[in-house]
Amino acid sequence: MLSLWSVFDIAESEREAALLEEQSVAPDFWDDIGAAQQTMRKLSRLHEEIDRWVSVVQQIDEALELVELGDPDMLEELTAEADRLADVVERMSFQALFSGPYDSEDAVLAVHAGAGGTDSQDWAQMLLRMFLRWAETQGHKVEVISETDGDEAGIKSATVSISGHYAYGYLQSERGVHRLVRLSPFDAAHRRHTSFALVEVWPDIQGEIELEIDERDLQIDTFRASGAGGQHVQKNETAIRITHKPTGVVVSCQNERSQAQNKERALHILKARLLDLERQKQEAEMTALKGKHIDAEWGNQIRSYVLHPYQMVKDHRTDYETGNVSAVLDGALDALMEAYLKAKVGS
Question: What structural domains does the chain harbor?
Answer without folding.
Answer: 2-96 (1.20.58.410), 101-206+302-347 (3.30.70.1660), 207-291 (3.30.160.20)
